[in-house]
Structures are given as structure tokens and as C-alpha cells.
Specification:
Strand content of chain A: 15-25%
Oligomer: homodimer
Structural class of chain A: alpha/beta
Order of helices and strands of chain A: HHHEEHEHEHEEEHEEEEHEHEEH
Number of helices of chain A: 10
Shape of chain A: rod-shaped
DNA sequence: TTTATTGTTTCTTAACTTTATACAATTTAT
DNA sequence: ATAAATTGTATAAAGTTAAGAAACAATAAA
């Protein structure tokens, strides 16, 4: 028998001045009202009411109990509403993890925008590549590139960005323009191993899929150094268009093998569980899902 | 499922940092620990722990809940111990009701003695004859004379005092000394109707029981005026020896018809219930039960 | 008197709690 | 590297309890 319920019954009986009245208020049977009080009395080993069939009065212990009961019940109600409120209104701290480049270039502008709507919310952003244990680190939501293989996490697709192979015009002039995936084996391919699979580039041509194992003069766990190296003529890169788009527009990089299709890079939001999703995560998720595709340039 | 129990489980899990550890502490199964937490989470609609099989961390809501839970649990424990203590140690206010004469002459000296042992206890004494609703008046314990016919009350015999019929020597000289119960019909018999049955005096002689209906020049609901009147020669009285004892010793009153037996007046302590008897009532009961018979002059 | 209402008791059914057992995931030990 | 142990959870069976209906004794009002 739930003690808090019994305490509530006790308070109502004391207020109503009768078991029957309280029972009606609480929509329970008179029998249950009796049982709740008797339960409390037996647990406390104390008589709470002096009662006969027709008259009812609190004992001294009952008076003392009543006062404290009310306080406890109030506290519990206040507590639950506070917790529920935390669940309903975005507030507190939202800890986000994202790969450095997209985090800095695309997620953080979105965050800034988002935060304007929720004055009680603050954000902690961690820019880090590679696999991270979200739960250990207390991360609320992470941005992942490519697919995910942790079954305990929930992934939601946010957007996708086409991958392009490109190099600086200078490099292409010196080493020739590759026409076929196989040609890549003779080139310097700069590898960003933040995007899996590390050193395999996969193309879809007229003759089906072809996977090439590439090597090159530079590897990094971040896209930025790779992009820089390519702009400076160190080799070919395969990076999402949202990173190299401007370089291409402005002629610093030049796309090659456009006739081949490359499976686009998928961008996912990832979070620990789907039930009881906190308001801050839920609402940011909705926001970024609407916001990101426009900035990436493609729909999810 | 008792919410306070669940809250306790929650606190222990948070402290132990694992369900299994908390389960061992609380001597319940791991399964139950899980269920308690799940129950809370579903009631709050909020995830309290981020957890996988191997790692556990409080959510933001969990942190907030933990703090308040501990406070509530402490409050409840404190409250219960306070109530139980009230039940174990005599303290607070003991409300006693007694017939005026015995209350003033015998009970209140006992009370004074008794109170010395319990500095946290105070007493409210009501001297009143006749039937009183103990529960309505919030009386903890009453002293009753004669038998009781309220089934909802518990009576415990404290003492008995022999009743004697007597009058002033002056009265007896003027009206003659009654030898037989029947003689009383020609006398003025002063009636104290605080002691039932009101106007019938019952004697036990060699020839069996005899009940006489008496009348007289004065009736009162208290013994004192009756005794006074008798001392002043207004008639015969039948009062317990503890009231008229001294008057007899000092010759102000003279006993008659001593050869007849009169059922002694029984003195009872009466209280509302026998279960969960509060410490103050229980201990005073014990005290007065040991104390009173000596002062009344007869054993219970 | 009859009628209605009170707090309580008894009894039965429905609901819940608890345990035992199994399982998937993951870590530690050998 | 394989086996053993430990974690949180799921599921089903057993055991326990809570809930309401009906009946009851006590009392008050009509």
C-alpha cells in the first residue's frame, strides 16, 4: 500500500472530519479509507484518530503527523512538477558532440540560432572526431557521419551531402586528370579517416560498383588539414561538398570523375534512447532537422 | 509499488553507481531494482539514468530528482521517528477527567507525584461528574465510579472503597438510629447522584440482598455538599470511606448499620482504546494503579 | 419506531509484487 | 583467445496484496 497515498488519505480524513467524506472526495470506498489509516497506524504503532462510529478527533500524535504529512506531500508534488517541467520545457545544459568541421561550420551556427528561443538553456559543445562513448561522457546528442554500429543508440538522419573527388588545378596539371577509379592508385590520395571507411573509396559507374584502396602523402582525423593540403597541391581528396564547395566555386579545387556516382555522406543525429527523450534533446533535434538540410544543400 | 521505497532504491542506485550494487545493499533482486527505477521513470515521464549494461550515469533530471529525493526521505524518516517517539516517551499533554471529590483529594496528588518523573509532560485536569463523551472532549483518561456501560471504552479497575451509611451524632439523637434498611424510608437520605444508581441503596444482610429506594432533603451531583449537609445534621448519607473516613474518626459523623454489607464502590480508569495506547496514558495508568490503592485504603 | 449514516469487518476477485530463470552485452580471468 | 563472470533487462509463474461489495453494529435523525 503506497504510503504517500495513505498519507494523502489521512490528510483528507483529517480535513473532512470523517472517513466517509474523505472517501467521497478521493473517490474510494469507505473501507479503503479505513484501511489506509489503519495501515499508517500500525506502521507508526500509534493511534492517529480517536474515533467511534459517530465522532472523530485527532490524537496528539495525529495532530503532529498531520502537519508534517502535509509538508511532505507538498514537497513531493513540488518535486515531481519540477522534474516533469524539466521534461517539458527545454532547460538546463545540452551537451552536444560533433565532428570538428561540420560542428564548427554548420552545427554551431544552428545552435546559436536555436538558443535564442530558450533562455533557460545553455549548451556545451564538444568537437571531436572518432568514436566516443556518449553515455560515459554524458553527451545528450551527437552528430555522426556515416553509419553507426552501436545498437544501444538511436540514430536519426539529418541530411546527406554528396562526396566529390577533387584536387587543385596545379596538381592536376602536374599529375594528370584521373578518368577512372583505377587511375587513383597512381595518385596521391589524402585521407580523412574521420569518415569511414578509412582508406577505401567506393564508386558506382556504368559497370557497377568499384572500390579502390587509396594511399597518399597525408592522413588526418579531421577534414580541415586534408582540404588545406589539397588546395596546396598535395593530392586528391574525397570530401563532402559542404566542405569543399566554396573552394570549387572559387577555383582553388577542381572536381574530377564527376561521371561516377559516389554514395553521399550521411549525417546523423545520435542519442542514447528513444523513450523519455528530454525536452532539450527533442526540441533541438526537431530544430536541427529542419535547419541543417538547407545549409548542407541537400535534403535528408 | 510504494513510491517512497522506489525513491529509496533510486537514491541507493545513484550512490552505488550500479543496480546490482544497490540491490545487494537493499537485499532485493536486480530485477526489482530495475523495476523500481522504471516505475519512477514512467511516473515522471523522465529518464533518470543513462545506462547500458556496463555504464550508468544520472541524467540532468536524475540529478535534480536525487537531491530532492534524499530530502524527502530524510523528512519522512524524521517525521516517523518523531511520532514513534511520542508513542514511546511520555510527553505532550495528558488530559484527565475525574469526579470532583476523588479528583481533588486523591488523583491530583498522585498526578503531582507522577509529573515529577516526566519533565516533557503536562496535564490538563477536568473535574466533572456525570457522563462525558471522552472522545469528543479529547480526554485521554477518565476516572469513573461504579460500572460503565460504554462498550467502546476500556475500563481498568484501580481500587475499591467500602461504602458506609452515616449521619451526624446530633441527627441520630434527634431521629433515632436506623437498624434495618427498611428503617431508612422514614429518614432523610441525602443523595449523591454522581454515584449510580442514584436513589437506590443496596444492602446485603443475613437474609439476602435488599434494595431500598431512599428520599431526602438534598440531592447533588457531587459528594462534597452532601457530606457537608450530613455533618450539619441534615440526614443520612451513603458515601465511600475515603470521603467520610476522617469525619468518622473525628466524630463528626457516625456509622450506622455496620452489620449490613454494602457492595463497595469500584473505582475505574477508563480510556478510549486498548491498541496503540500512547505512552503518556500507559505510564500514568501503571503509576496510578500502583499508587491509588494505598491512599484509598483497600486493594483493587 | 423507522430510516439513514457512520466506521469497520469479511470475503472474493483482480491486480500487483516478487522471485526464478533466461538472455544479450560486456568485462575479467585464465 | 577462450571461458567464466557480471551487468541490466525480459518474461512467466507464484505469492501477496489491494480493492470493492456486501454485511454489520452503533448511532443519529426523522
Amino acid at each position: 500500500m503506497d504510503k504517500l497515498t495513505s498519507m494523502n488519505v489521512f490528510v483528507r480524513v483529517a480535513k473532512a472530519g470523517s472517513f466517509a467524506g474523505a472517501a467521497k472526495d478521493l473517490d474510494i470506498s469507505r473501507a479503503m479509507a479505513t484501511k489506509h489509516i489503519m495501515q499508517l497506524e500500525s506502521e507508526l504503532n500509534t493511534r492517529l484518530f480517536n474515533r467511534t462510529t459517530r465522532s472523530l478527533s485527532l490524537t496528539e500524535a495525529g495532530e503532529a503527523y498531520l502537519e508534517r504529512c502535509q509538508q511532505v506531500l507538498l514537497d513531493v508534488a513540488e518535486m515531481e512538477s519540477a522534474i516533469t517541467h524539466l521534461q517539458t520545457e527545454p532547460r538546463g545544459t545540452l551537451k552536444i558532440l560533433a565532428p570538428p568541421v561540420i560542428g564548427a561550420s554548420h552545427i554551431s551556427p544552428g545552435l546559436t540560432e536555436y538558443l535564442k528561443n530558450y533562455p533557460d538553456l545553455s549548451v556545451e559543445m564538444v568537437l571531436k572526431g572518432g568514436q566516443v562513448d556518449l553515455i560515459d561522457e554524458g553527451v545528450d546528442l551527437a552528430i555522426y557521419l556515416g553509419q553507426l554500429n552501436d545498437t544501444s543508440l538511436v540514430a536519426r538522419k539529418l541530411a546527406s551531402s554528396s562526396l566529390v573527388v577533387c584536387a587543385s588545378p596545379e596538381y592536376l596539371k602536374n599529375h594528370g586528370i584521373p578518368q577512372d577509379p583505377e587511375d587513383l592508385e597512381d595518385h596521391s590520395c589524402l585521407i580523412n579517416w574521420a569518415i569511414p571507411p578509412r582508406n577505401k573509396w567506393r564508386f558506382k559507374g556504368i559497370l557497377g560498383e568499384r572500390t579502390v584502396t587509396v594511399t597518399g602523402r597525408m592522413q588526418a582525423n579531421m577534414a580541415d588539414p586534408i582540404r588545406n593540403a589539397a588546395v596546396n597541391g598535395l593530392g586528391l581528396i574525397m570530401l563532402p561538398r559542404y566542405i569543399v564547395g566554396r573552394d570549387i566555386e572559387q577555383g582553388r579545387l577542381q572536381v574530377v570523375m564527376e561521371q561516377y556516382g559516389i554514395a553521399p555522406l550521411e549525417i546523423y543525429a545520435v542519442y542514447p534512447h528513444r523513450k523519455y527523450l528530454s525536452a532539450k534533446v527533442r526540441s533541438f533535434l526537431e530544430f536541427i532537422q529542419a535547419w541543417l538540410p538547407h545549409r548542407i544543400g541537400m535534403n535528408p
